[in-house]
Amino acid sequence: MMLHTSPMETQRRASFEQHSQDVLNLLGAGHQLTRAEIASRLGVTRTTITPVLSQLHDEGAIVTVATQSGEGRGRRAAILAIDPTAVRHIGVDMSHTRVIVILANNAGTEIVSGMKEFQAGATWESRCTTAIKFIQTLVSSHELHLRQLSRIAIGLPGSASWHFGFSEENYPAVFPSRAELKAESRTQVMQDSANDTRLRVTQIFAEEFHVPVATAHHIRYAAIAEAANHPSAENLLYVRLSSGVGGAVIDCGKAVVGAAKLAGEIGHMCVDHSDNAPLCRCGKRGCLEAFISITALENSWRKAGHPKDTFADLCEAAHQDNPERRTNPGNSSRTSRLPDSNRRAQEIVVQAAKTLGRAIGCAAVVTDPDSIVISGEVGNLLLTQQEVIQTEVDKEILPVAQSRVCAASVGFKAGAVGAVIASMSEANTASTPSTPPNLINPRIYDT
Ligand SMILES: [Zn+2]
């Protein structure tokens, strides 16, 4: 027997779906309302909204949190809110070494989050399996459910690091030269490799969770999170300085992507144009990354007479004029360092801060950001010379421009936070909330 759906029935269903979404948006913004209040706010009758609310209640999307206290003798009205155990968005930040996951409700509020390390050398397939199992464990151990899941957004390493297939912690010893890898094929190889992996990751998650899955550069997601945490800064330049140097440009709250998805790769701006400038892993010479990555600074420190020291030793030596650190008993073995050594460490940091300031100043001339947000281990070290960085930036930008150098504020979960924001934005479920989602200082089960 053939089943026919009348146009009227189709229209009724569409209207029902729209009302469901409107209720989720309304309650998702944190409101706790009675049926009558919901009907009134949405401008529909109670007869229209009652079956919608019943279905959302049965599906576990909304719950009764209280009954309205009143003086009348009639039945007390139930007060409805979003079910705090209903996961609506999953934000994932996958690097080569670990995955960070945030499970958020319809309002974008974090319900629970966590981090899981990958096994060394794990393939992307196996990383996805680990991440999915981790999400399922978080859901079951916190008694949550995924019946209302809307979307998943996944932050992945950027195209530049896909190019060689090496982790940020494992740079290749031999670099392909520009001659070996012509510009056209370079872009193509990079794009193909990145696209294949992104596609596969998307596929694996979509097959598991049956919802739309988006992927993007995880530094762009981190930058989106920073922008949401600086409500007055819609235009932002984000720089992460660690084993590599990455960045993102946020324009009016959106990340600039570029033709080959390479926008914001500030680590590969040339800061030394001489023929013998250090080679960068991207194949160019004189890139910013070749001067101010962890490895680069460690090498400078070793050349300055500390052949066995690490980046951590450099940080400690650079900080040693700080009285708080000097009196810290944990640092007693290091306080015997010669003042000369502290001075050398600080010279390295000042020089690196100048190099960084000039590069981001040039980028700021083009992008005109409100703020230049600096993150990562090297970023934290160089921010001890924040005025030096700001002075160099100010030399570059137009006198009427104001681009303030500041430290990142969201922390290590920034990539996953940005993924949740992107997921919300794409699903349009929260229709651009007037306040940024409360992921920075999460309220858990706020009903
Ligand atoms: Zn480079």
From TrEMBL:
GO terms for biological process: regulation of DNA-templated transcription. GO terms for molecular function: DNA binding. Residues 328-339 have a biased composition (Polar residues). Residues 320-344, 428-447 are annotated as: Disordered. Pfam families: HTH_Crp_2, ROK. PROSITE patterns: ROK (PS01125). Residues 25-81 form the HTH crp-type domain. It comes from the Bacteria. InterPro entries: ATPase_NBD, HTH_CRP, ROK, ROK_cs, WH-like_DNA-bd_sf, WH_DNA-bd_sf. Belongs to the ROK (NagC/XylR) family. This is ROK family protein. The lineage of its organism: Bacteria, Bacillati, Actinomycetota, Actinomycetes, Actinomycetales.
